[in-house]
Amino acid sequence: MTTHNKKQFGVWMDTQHATVAVKKSPESKDFVILGHVKNPGAERNSNENAANNQEIALMHKFFKEIAAMMPNADEIHVTGTGQVQEQFIHFLAETPQYKNTVSTESTSNKMGDEQLAAFFGDHFN
Hints:
There is one protein chain. The protein is 34% helix and 25% strand. It has 125 residues and is of the alpha/beta class. A hairpin with a 3-residue loop joins strand 1 (8-13) and strand 2.
């Protein structure tokens, strides 16, 4: 399979927000923003165990919402701040639908949608 026929996606994420980009068309080098996903975070809870469980459940839901935007992905590049990208890549590796998806990661500061689309276009080309 050539790189021109692969479904390529890019994700910028931190623990609260994710932006998903997709290649405009198999022939194009340009990426477009597919959508945004927000993670509201756990509510305050006096029980530390309950708060931790809620935080884990919300993060898992956040990852599922992002993954749902990328059906049949062949390549995914995940970037952003912190360590959440690594957690997301592990989530994808454990999900049967994304088991054979090639995932790469990098670290970058928050960017506007246009800058992000250009960043992913440069990465994949």
